[in-house]
Amino acid sequence: MATDNIDKDKKTTETEDAAKTAADEADMKTADETADAAEASAGSEAVESCDSDSDKKTKKSDSKKLKETEKALKAAEKELDDAKSKLEEQNDRYLRLAAEYDNFRRRSKEEKDSIYSDACLDVLTEILPVIDNLERAAAFEGEAADGVRLTLKQFTETLTKLGVAEIPALDQPFDPNVHNAVMHVEDDSLGENIVCDVFQKGYIRGEKVLRYAMVKVAN
């Protein structure tokens, strides 16, 4: 009986020891699982934190690049505007210079033509009295007069080549633009303001009067 009790106590003790060991193992397992869970949670939080920091850095970098791009774009637009302004200025300067040159060339041509015309008119005006004298000499008869008439013909042909023409006067209506009236007469046989006599021939070259015709006007 005593032996049975001892065995029974021994088994009870062993059972209690096994239960305690199982409980300790369960506690250790639970602690390990808790530690693993805590470690996993910390790792996840660390990863999330790293991802968040990386996103912030990426956004900051993108924002910086965007600002730099906008700044470069504004600088390029300013350079383009400056280039356009300079081009317009140069084009305007070129147009003004071309206009000034064209005006200078036209003025030079006009001055040249005017100088030539004035010089030609001066020479022709000085020749006219010589022609008057030749005409008076040619009115006489004789061999000498024949030579004078030949010379007068050559002068007349030369004046024609130079564009000089005699102003029509005799029996023409008086024109103050080309006629110089030095005498007036009343003559019923003639019309009003009709040139009835020419004292000195007039000459014209183009629209320029070299010498007005000196005339007598009737009525």
Written account of the structure:
The protein has helices at 2-138, 143-161, and strands at residues 164-166, 179-185, 194-200, 203-205, 208-211, 213-218. A hairpin with a 2-residue loop joins strand 4 (203-205) and strand 5 (208-211). It has 219 residues and is α+β, with helices and mostly antiparallel strands. Among the domains are: 75-162, Alpha-Beta Complex (Hemagglutinin Ectodomain, Chain B); 165-219, Nucleotide Exchange Factor Grpe, Chain A, domain 2, CATH 2.30.22.10. The protein has a 3-stranded antiparallel β-sheet with strand order 1-4-5. The chain has a 3-stranded mixed β-sheet with strand order 2-6-3, with no helix packed on it. It has 2 helices and 6 strands, in the order H-H-E-E-E-E-E-E. Helix 1 packs antiparallel against helix 2 (143-161). The longest helix is centred in the N-terminal third of the chain and has 137 residues, at 2-138. The chain starts with a helix and ends with a strand. The chain is rod-shaped.
Task: Please give a handful of descriptors for the protein shown.
219 residues, alpha+beta, Hemagglutinin Ectodomain, Chain B, Nucleotide Exchange Factor Grpe, Chain A, domain 2, three-stranded antiparallel β-sheet, 2 helices, 71% helix, rod-shaped
- The helix/strand class is alpha+beta
- What CATH architecture label of the domain at 75-162 applies? Alpha-Beta Complex
Question: Strands across the major sheet, in which order?
Answer: 1-4-5
Overall pLDDT: 81
Distance between termini?
195 Å
| Uncertain stretches | none
The number of helical elements comes to 2
Shape: rod-shaped
Largest sheet: 3 strands, antiparallel
Please provide the ordered H/E string of secondary-structure elements: HHEEEEEE
Report the count of strand segments: 6
Please identify the top-level CATH class of the domain at 75-162: Alpha Beta
Helix content percent band: over 70%
Beta-strand content bin: 5-15%
Radius of gyration: 64 Å
CATH topology of the domain at 75-162: Hemagglutinin Ectodomain, Chain B
